[in-house]
């Protein structure tokens, strides 16, 4: 009887804790996220840092009115600037990019480096919400990012340094019910996109995991082609190219946070601690920090803190012999995984592996050594997840998240993991399996769709100017590598046209509007 009472007491206590936590979270997501903290955790991608890391931090700000101020130097803002500058018919516009910290030091430098868009996973939900034509439009848009990013890396001469490549990507399931459900979703998806049948394969056999050197508890896998990339090197490399190519038309000022925007004499005045910049157009490319300068977007784009790690692989991977199978081929750098350990697709972890180019002398900075770039764990425990919602301090890494990330990989690979990997001493890296752990801030959209386009005054909270406007490219809900690049490009096309209309092929449901803003409700996701 005492045991039953203890269980009930514990359950009631847990419910009370959750109720209290929900109240704290509700208050937090309604507040301003502020500006990025000045000393964030160190992401593995950014070691060594780019020569641009502090670019313009001591340069004088422009005195004359500029055409565009871009706030944020990540992949979305960089894509926007690249398209706007390169597509100009005559003289390119005068573009100024600001960042509160080092160049490209937000979510772009802190993600998993995987280009694995949600396709069959969400198609049914997209169809129910938007209809089949728009659902197909969104899928085509997401799918186009792999080829577009590879093409951009090649055009910029960054294909090798950014490690941009195609990989085999596997959805890995440990629960039979979820595998069957996702298999059915894939079949429905392929009925709509029959031309893709050759790009997908499934394996629900008892040895489906063993074939991939995964744990024997794997009950099924779904495979297709995805991508992997070094996001920091790609974006910082593009920024470097733009600064050289448009030295009189494009400026980057790091460590120059925007603290306010006012409308004065029909132009925007961007206030920074280093002075003011006058501009005809403002582009908000700050994702999780969007609502600091756009107060009406609070509770519409929510900051959420996630964790990532770089780990040494177990010594058994890629070289071990699996009973009943031939020796495994060396797959370093050629696979990515999304692991689903439970019964719902909302609980997942993600993994890409860097190639082993330790002997290469042609790469700038530290060459990759087959590191496992592993993230996730956010949804595994409700207290940890509650702490993450609305959090904007990426200087800290939470102990429960570090513990989870530090223990999951050997479980996913089982006996194939082998002895712990060993490596030589490296700058800023720990000596054990876990080389580095860091946090980053995601921008979660209340209706799950990105916000891309011209902002009505209701959404900016400010008056409009006659020959310009405020624009947004943000709210990628943890799927920036499958949305941000082409969203930034599309936004540049909208601004150049001046009317805010969606270009051909761009999903119109991404456009900001008062009606969409009123309907977007974050409580539907909590």
From TrEMBL:
Keyword entries, A-Z: Signal
TM region(s), chain numbering: none
Signal peptide start and end residues: 1-21
Superkingdom of this protein's organism: Eukaryota
GO cellular component, as recorded: cytoplasm
Gene3D superfamilies hit by this protein: D-Amino Acid Oxidase, subunit A, domain 2, FAD/NAD(P)-binding domain
InterPro entries xrefs: FAD-dep_OxRdtase, FAD/NAD-bd_sf
Coiled coil: none
One Pfam family of this chain: DAO
SUPFAM superfamilies cross-referenced by the UniProt entry: FAD/NAD(P)-binding domain (SSF51905)
Domain FAD dependent oxidoreductase: 67-494
Record's protein name: FAD dependent oxidoreductase
Originating organism: Cylindrobasidium torrendii FP15055 ss-10
């Amino acid at each position: 009887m005492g045991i039953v009472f203890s269980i009930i007491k514990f359950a009631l206590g847990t419910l009370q804790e959750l109720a209290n936590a929900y109240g704290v979270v509700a208050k937090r997501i309604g507040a301003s996220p502020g500006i990025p903290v000045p000393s964030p955790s160190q992401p593995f991608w950014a070691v060594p840092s780019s020569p641009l890391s502090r670019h313009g931090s001591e340069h004088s700000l422009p005195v004359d009115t500029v055409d565009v101020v871009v706030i944020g130097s990540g992949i979305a803002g960089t894509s926007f600037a690249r398209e706007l500058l390169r597509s100009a018919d005559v003289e390119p516009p005068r573009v100024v990019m600001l960042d509160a910290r080092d160049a490209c030091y937000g979510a772009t430098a802190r993600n998993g480096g995987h280009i694995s868009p949600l396709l069959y996973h969400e198609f049914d939900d997209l169809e129910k919400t938007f209809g089949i034509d728009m659902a197909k439009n969104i899928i085509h848009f997401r799918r186009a990012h792999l080829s577009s990013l590879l093409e951009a890396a090649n055009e910029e001469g960054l294909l090798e340094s950014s490690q941009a490549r195609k990989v085999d990507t596997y959805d890995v399931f440990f629960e039979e019910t979820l595998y069957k459900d996702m298999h059915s979703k894939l079949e429905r998806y392929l009925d709509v996109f029959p031309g893709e049948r050759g790009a997908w394969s499934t394996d629900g056999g008892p040895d489906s995991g063993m074939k991939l050197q995964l744990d024997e508890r794997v009950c099924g896998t779904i495979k297709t082609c995805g991508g992997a990339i070094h996001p920091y090197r790609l974006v910082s490399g593009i920024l470097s190219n733009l600064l050289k190519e448009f030295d009189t038309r494009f400026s980057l000022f790091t460590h120059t946070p925007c603290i306010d925007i006012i409308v004065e004499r029909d132009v925007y005045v961007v206030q920074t601690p280093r002075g003011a910049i006058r501009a005809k157009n403002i582009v908000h490319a700050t994702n999780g920090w969007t609502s600091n300068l756009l107060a009406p977007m609070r509770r519409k784009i929510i900051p959420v803190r996630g964790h990532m790690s770089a780990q040494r692989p177990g010594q058994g991977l890629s070289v071990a012999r699996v009973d009943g199978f031939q020796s495994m081929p060396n797959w370093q750098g050629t696979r990515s995984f999304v692991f689903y350990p439970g019964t719902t697709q909302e609980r997942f972890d993600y993994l890409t592996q860097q190639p082993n180019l330790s002997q290469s002398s042609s790469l700038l900075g530290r060459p990759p050594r087959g590191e496992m770039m592993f993230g996730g764990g956010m949804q595994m425990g409700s207290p940890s997840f509650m702490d993450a919602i609305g959090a904007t301090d990426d200087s800290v890494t939470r102990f429960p998240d570090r513990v989870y990330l530090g223990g999951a990989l050997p479980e996913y690979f089982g006996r194939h993991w082998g002895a712990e990997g060993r490596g030589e001493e490296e700058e800023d890296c720990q000596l054990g399996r876990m080389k580095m752990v860091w946090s980053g801030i995601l921008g979660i959209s209340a209706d799950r769709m990105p916000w891309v386009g011209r902002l009505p005054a209701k959404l900016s909270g400010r008056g409009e100017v006659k020959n310009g406007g405020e624009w947004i490219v943000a709210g990628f809900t943890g799927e920036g590598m499958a949305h941000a690049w082409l969203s930034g490009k599309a936004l540049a096309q909208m601004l150049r046209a001046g009317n805010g209309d969606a270009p051909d092929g761009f999903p119109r449901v991404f456009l900001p509007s008062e009606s969409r803003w009123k309907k977007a409700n974050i409580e539907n996701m909590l």
